[in-house]
Amino acid sequence: MKKHSARVAPLSACNSPVLTLTKVEGEERLRDPPGPAEAQAPVGTDTGGRPSPRCWRCSQAQLKKIFWGVAVVLCVSSSWAGATQLAKLTFRKLDAPFTLTWFATNWNFFFFPLYYAGHVCKSAEKQSVKQRYRECCRFFGDNGLTLKVFFTKAAPFGVLWTLTNYLYLHAIKKINTTDVSVLFCCNKAFVFLLSWIVLRDRFMGVRIVAAILAIAGIVLMTYADGFHSHSVIGIALVVGSASMSALYKVLFKLLLGSAKFGEAALFLSILGVFNILFITCIPVILYFTKVEYWSSFDDIPWGNLCGFSVLLLTFNIVLNFGIAVTYPTLMSLGIVLSVPVNAVVDRYTSKIVFNGVRVVAMVIIGLGFLLLLLPEEWDVWLLKLLTRLKVRKKEEAAEGGADLGLGPQSKSGRARPSFAR
User: Membrane spanning segments where (predicted)?
Assistant: First the structure.
């Protein structure tokens, strides 16, 4: 893995559903989390008994991150749920999941141009497009983006990307969007299992429990529809999509390591170029073989098609670059919160039945997802918190006992002089 002071390992806290497969941090991050000294600042005050300026600045930074976190959560959940619902609407007029996958993936090309536009507007040291491109190409090695690197380090990820999207969209044709979105949340559990096996990540009992809950949720979701062939195929497609997404993420971390903002934007744009150059032939073949056929181009719902692509691009941008303004855990909450949004829409637009088994399955998968958001040192933090609470209770009890013991003495001390007189 490459080492760089401005790099972090992608996918550390938040696993995106379909299109966001790396997470980056560093070169343009607005503010780092407070260090140990800053974390203790709120208890410090100046000589006048007022909070110190350092404490005030720390509080402002944290409040700002939380505010941006709420905005990012709303944007992630709404864009992801909206894209899923638009895909469902698109299939009513255009039964072509692979063509929709190809069309939406082409929009990845805009990642690097949008990143460069932000760089020009924000950076103090502006670089030309060529300079910035060459600097970001160092992510692939000393020789930059060569033809060999393109086919060995970009093309395989392009194939996995396409499979992930296609299986997800094909599943939307088979089962309702609520089941699809909640089942895809299991991809975070698959990432943990693969990382534990392939990357030798630290074993955590709570994450094993989360993975077991995810598998149990999949079984219960299948049972909720009575193991009918139609629903079983749809669930299998979602699980396959989640598995492809997990494999993508683990291989990215294994082969490429981590990326800065510009490097990630360039990588995603390269996937768009790969899609245009090498995947375009597949929708053409499917059209002429009438596997995915439409009678006239005027019958294509271009509004839904473009709206779906724009929402996915927005979702991708926010989830990849939102780490610059807020905490990764908050962005992960946006993914799981898209499930109730889809459930509300499905309740009023489809014939979905929320029986007890389905609700239990959704709760179990959601609980497993939340358990996977716990940091690696969560048990240490919990023990420290419990220790502090015990110490505080002992101190309060000691202070209360001291007050009771001093109360009669102070009264008798005050009474003696008056009695003597």
Answer: 66-87, 107-124, 145-168, 180-199, 206-224, 230-252, 264-288, 308-340, 352-374
